[in-house]
Design brief:
alpha+beta, 3 domains, 6-stranded antiparallel beta sheet, 17 strands, flat, PPIase_PpiC
Length: about 525
């Protein structure tokens, strides 16, 4: 898949995912898609596709398999994170697409042969004896006890799955690639380069900027009134801070369904703990020993800085009425009985623009000066590179280490970063991201060379030199022709499949039920 760009590669993995859905969702252990005849999904379905429901159970199984697959590949990401990246929507989309293809196969009269069905069943190891051969008695037992299907039901579902796969194969057979397309692909992919670059960020030079003099600050403030006002508006939360307390708590938990007697016992326990505090017991020590709040007890009940609006009103009223060092009486909330100690208090702040103009102007002045220093250092590095001192010589990385950029750490100084080879197809540079101007200049270079300008990518000033340059030629094309033809065919198969699925969705009726998905995965995903 070397010739596939990231979008095509993702699409190919998507098609493979469809095939997996066919195998797992229509095959062993699946209850298929129930036909309700209704366009809207019921509470027990995650979607309807032209009136056929995709049951909650099918989605739940597909989700579990997806998460187990990620874990088996060394990616044990939490389910909540997977949902943030939309993995649940991808799983549902694969199920919907699988159903659309199955229905299309039925309309086109595509049916697998009895021999194909027999072969697939016989290859399923769930139905094998201890000796590793298909066992008809075990086949019947597994269907009855585990899949809860009769052989007729199971085989009908399996035929449907196989027909859907055949439908996709039919679509993909239309991917014909001409010699001209293969040549065009080579012209793009054979045009490659590799860079070494260094980044010059303003943050690297911020501590080298001296504080402005009164005259400099006044001049800057006068020339940048709009920028100062815009900065104040964008960061008003910094200058308008509500009253806050830094607090600790001891919690005596009370179950939501607790009886009056149980509540009284909890309150009595809290009162006893408060007496221990009055007797001189350290609050943090007592919290570690007696608090029921698992999230804070090991930290001595430390809650950090708290605003009034983030707490239960009764608890907030009691705590915010105290002075630093004082402890509340027992206060009841939905969680139980609380004792709160106020460690420190900060009054509300409402600083107007006029009050902070000088502060903002100083900050913006230093930022501007740091940008200027970064650009000046980039210009100096470019001049040295043109004079023959490579970026790796100017900005070496310690032996055995990777540059901070590749370690995803904050960069405190410029470092020479070498990219992988990349092509002119896109506008991105490895490790930098979108940088169209840099890409254009890179491929205008005839061979290894220092690029003769400083490029701006985000906040960074970039100095770069081409260290490898490969151009397409006839010998290279002849060597890779068949490989490129295969890649081009794969890319076209992906495009045809995507287009076909889009047409099925456009002409069909697909209704999804996100509430049902939430009921399966829960609020945490």
């Amino acid at each position: 898949m070397d010739g596939l760009n990231p979008r095509k590669l993702f699409s190919l993995l998507f098609i493979i995912g469809i095939a997996v859905v066919f195998t797992l969702q229509f095959g062993p252990g699946s209850n298929g898609f129930a036909d309700t005849g209704s366009a809207a999904p019921t509470a027990s379905a995650v979607a309807t596709v032209n009136g056929k429901e995709i049951p909650l159970r099918d989605f739940s199984m597909a989700w579990s398999r997806q998460m187990n697959f990620l874990r088996s590949q060394g990616n044990p990401i939490p389910e909540s994170v997977a949902r943030q990246f939309g993995l649940d929507k991808q799983v549902l989309d694969r199920l919907v697409n699988a159903e659309l293809l199955a229905q299309s196969a039925e309309r086109h009269g595509i049916t697998p042969s009895d021999e194909e069905l027999r072969k697939l069943i016989h290859e399923n190891t769930d139905f094998h004896s201890k000796e590793g051969a298909f066992d008809f008695a075990r086949y019947q037992q597994v269907l009855r006890d585990f899949y809860r299907r009769t052989p007729q039901e199971y085989e009908q579902e399996l035929r449907r799955q196989m027909a859907a796969q055949k439908m996709m194969d039919v679509v993909r057979t239309g991917a014909v690639v001409s010699d001209d397309e293969v040549r065009a692909r080579y012209e793009k992919e054979g045009n490659q380069a590799k860079l070494v670059f260094a980044r010059f960020l303003p943050t690297m030079y911020a501590d080298k900027v001296p504080a402005p003099t009164a005259a400099q600050l006044a001049a800057f403030q006068k020339a940048h009134e709009k920028e100062i006002a815009d900065y104040y508006s964008a960061n008003s939360f910094v200058y308008n801070v509500p009253e806050r307390i830094r607090a600790r708590q001891i919690l005596v938990k009370v179950a939501p369904d607790a009886t009056a007697e149980q509540k009284a016992q909890a309150k009595a326990k809290a009162e006893g703990l408060r007496k221990e505090l009055e007797g001189g017991k350290d609050f943090a020590t007592l919290a570690k020993a007696s608090s029921d709040d698992d999230a804070t007890k090991l930290k001595g009940g430390e809650l950090g800085w708290v605003e009034r609006t983030t707490w239960d009103p009764a608890l907030a009223d009691a705590a915010f009425a105290l002075k630093a060092g004082e402890v509340t009486q027992p206060v009841e909330s939905a969680l139980g009985i609380h004792l709160v100690k106020v460690e420190e208090k900060k009054d509300a702040q409402a600083r107007k623009l006029d009050d902070v103009k000088g502060e903002i102007a100083t900050s913006l002045y230093k930022q501007e000066q740091a940008k200027g220093l970064a650009k000046a250092e980039a210009d100096k590095a470019l001049a040295a590179a043109k004079a023959g001192k490579s970026l790796k010589e100017q900005f070496p990385v310690p032996a055995g280490q990777q540059p901070a950029l590749l370690r995803f750490e904050a960069e405190t100084k410029p470092e020479a970063v070498e990219t992988d080879s990349f092509t002119a197809q896109g506008d991105s540079v490895p490790h930098l991201g979108p940088a169209p101007g840099l890409v254009k200049s890179t491929f205008e270079a005839k061979g290894p060379a220092v690029l003769d300008e400083v490029f701006t990518v985000g906040e960074a000033n970039i100095v770069a030199q081409v260290v490898e340059r490969e151009k397409p030629d006839t010998a290279g094309f002849d060597k890779r022709k068949e490989e490129l033809r295969t890649q081009a065919r794969q890319a076209k198969q992906i495009e045809l499949t995507e287009s076909f699925l889009k047409s099925l969705k456009k002409s069909g009726n697909v209704v999804t039920n996100t509430e049902a998905i939430d009921s399966v995965l829960g609020s945490a995903g």
